[in-house]
Amino acid sequence: ERLGADLRHSLDDGDFHVVYQPIVDLGDSSTVAVEALVRWVHPVRGFVSPVAFIPVAEDNGLIVELGEWIMRTACRKLSEWRRVLGAAAPLYISVNVSARQLSEPGFPAVVTTILTETGLEPAALLVEVTETAIFGGGTAIEAVESLHRSGIRIALDDFGTGHSSLGLLRTVPVDVLKVDKSFVDEIAEPGGNPVIVDALIHVSNGLGLRAVAEGVETEEQAVYLRDLGYHYAQGYHFGRPSPDPILVATVPAAP
Ligand code: G
Ligand code: G
Ligand code: MN
Ligand code: NA
């Protein structure tokens, strides 16, 4: 397929970029972490959404190489922030990993090598997986267990939208629940019903997990979530994904 061949060229030509979205503490809006998100600027088509190209890269296997590049780029970035900012750098970086990457033999070893190369300890990395990826079969669960054993933390992304079984939270080593935007959207919407965000903070606390509310777009939603007991959130209200939200925010303006 065309898009597939273009992915190959763009990987060689440097048309992929990684942007970073703040994950904030709802108490003081400080950035505690960032999520890495890949962007593709196609030489002819311009911006192509990951929603369109990640599935193609999964099908033709390029996601393995692309995903490794994203992971290395993100880890280098956190390393740079630490070099410049020391303890004021974000605590960890969150990286999305797809089903195909998880079931690639040797994936956990690749991740460990990247951490060593970039001088990060395992706890500096949070790997985001979806319920669907974990249950895609093969060795995905074993990979998640192996990453977790090495000290890398695991987040369940888009939580509640897949074929969720709450039992999964007891059988797979999960540290963080990323509560899907569709549930956050119900807050402060006419006719909306925020019952799921309410239920999930209890589930998360009860299991000793951390919850991150995704897709927070308004102050009203942020306040509501904080009052429910959420500590962490992410969304356009706090910051859109951008090339360097950390150094841009801290570099003093020119006189
Ligand atoms: O960043 P954006 O909202 O456009 O992302 C759309 C979808 O693409 C989301 O489901 C997101 O998880 C996925 N995505 C974005 N960046 C990456 C990435 O680096 N790796 C993988 N596997 N998925 C990504
Ligand atoms: O599936 P995942 O949660 O990894 O996808 C995150 C995607 O959601 C990213 O592509 C990011 O650009 C997008 N996103 C992040 N915050 C918001 C938000 O507040 N509103 C909307 N519409 N999208 C968001
Ligand atoms: Mn994610
Ligand atoms: Na998500």
Automatic annotation (TrEMBL):
Q: Where is the EAL domain?
A: 1-255
Stretches assigned to coiled coil: none
Protein name per the record = Diguanylate cyclase (GGDEF) domain-containing protein
Identify the species of origin. Answer: Actinoplanes derwentensis
Its ancestry begins with: Bacteria, Bacillati, Actinomycetota, Actinomycetes, Micromonosporales
